[in-house]
C-alpha cells in the first residue's frame, strides 16, 4: 500500500490549495526519494528535461500566442459584429451572440480561459447595459467558453492526441460536431431563459442579407484560419506544430494589414502573455509526466484498468462510470491537468472495451470543459467571476440550466460514437 502514498499526498496538496504543478512534482519526488531505492534521482531529473523536449509540444505556445494576437488585432471585434448580424435579432440577442462568438472564437484561439477573459471584457459590459443580470452574464460567458477548446485548434485536442498516441488531424476533425451541439444546446437554453425574463434582442429587426454579407466579408480572413489549418494538415503541407506557427503568422498579418489594429508595440504584451500562459501549461505537463513515470513503474494504470473492467465489461456502462469519475475530479482539479493525469490511467481500460480512442478523447475534453464551469476549482468560473466581480453563489444559481444543457450533450456524445466519428470517417 505504500506505493499508493504519493497519490494520497497529491490529493492532500490539492486540498491545501498548493499549485497543481508543485503538487504533482512534490508527490512524485516523495516516491523517488523515500520509497523507490532502485531508480537514481539523477534519472528522474532527466525526466524533467526530456518531458519538455518534445517537438509536438511546441504547438502549445504557438496556439496560446494565437489567442493573444487575436485580442490585439481586431479579429475578436470583427467576429462579434458578424455574430450580432447573424442572430442579434433573436430573443435574448446579445446572449445568443455570446454563444455564437465563443463558437467562432474557438476556431481561432482554441483556449477557454482566453475566450472567457475576452468576452468578459468586450461583450459582458454591453450585456449588462442592455438589462441582462450580471450573474446571468457571468454564467453564460463561462458556459459558452467551454465550446472553444472543443473546436480545432483547441490546445486540449493536441495534448490528448499526444497522450493517447492518436492522430492530431483526427482529433481536430472529431471536435466540430460536438462543439456545434454544445452551441445549439446553449442557444436553446438562452432562448428559454430570455423568454421567461423578457431579455430583449440586440437588434430591433434582423440584419439584411447585404449587411450580413458585409460583416461576413470583414470576418472572412479570421474565419478562414481554422479551415486553412485543417486543409494544410490534411494535404501534408505542415505538421500540427507548424500549423500553430502559421496561425500566429496569419493572425498577425490580418491584424497588421487588413484590420490595421495590431501595432508593433503590442508584440511585447503578446510575448509576455504567451510566456506566462505557456509556462503554466508546460510546468503542469512536466509535473504530470514525472508523476506518470511513478505510476508506470508501479503499474497503477493497469491496476485501475483491471478494476474498471472487473466492474463491468459493458462499453457504455464503462463510459458512464468514467464520465462520473471525470465530472467529480473536474470539480477539484483544473481540466488540462485532470486530462493529463487520468488519460494514461483510463485509456487501457477503454481500449480493452473496444472504445475508439478518438471518441474517448472527445468525451474526456467535453467533460473537463464542463468541470471548468463548476466549483470549487472551475478555471473559467474563476476567470469570469474575478473580472466581473460576481459572487460564486450567485454564479452557481445562474449556471445550473447551462450545466444541464452541456451534460445532455455529453450523454449524447457518450452513447453515439457514430455522431462523434462521422466527420473523421467521412474525410
UniProtKB/TrEMBL annotation:
Q: Does the keyword S-adenosyl-L-methionine apply?
A: no
GO molecular function per UniProt: transmembrane transporter activity
Lipid bilayer topology: Multi-pass membrane protein
Q: Where are the transmembrane segments?
A: 7-34, 54-72, 131-151, 171-194, 215-237, 243-262, 274-296, 316-333, 361-388, 400-423
Compartments where located: Cell inner membrane
- List UniProt keywords, sorted A-Z: Cell inner membrane, Cell membrane, Membrane, Transmembrane, Transmembrane helix, Transport
Task: Show the GO cellular component annotation of the record.
Answer: plasma membrane
- Which ranges carry the TRAP C4-dicarboxylate transport system permease DctM subunit domain? 7-417
**Quaternary structure annotation from Swiss-Prot or TrEMBL:** The complex comprises the extracytoplasmic solute receptor protein and the two transmembrane proteins.
What family does the Swiss-Prot or TrEMBL record give for this protein?
Answer: Belongs to the TRAP transporter large permease family.
| Task performed by this protein | Part of the tripartite ATP-independent periplasmic (TRAP) transport system.
- What is the name listed in the Swiss-Prot or TrEMBL entry for this protein? TRAP transporter large permease protein
Q: Which organism is it from?
A: Vibrio metschnikovii
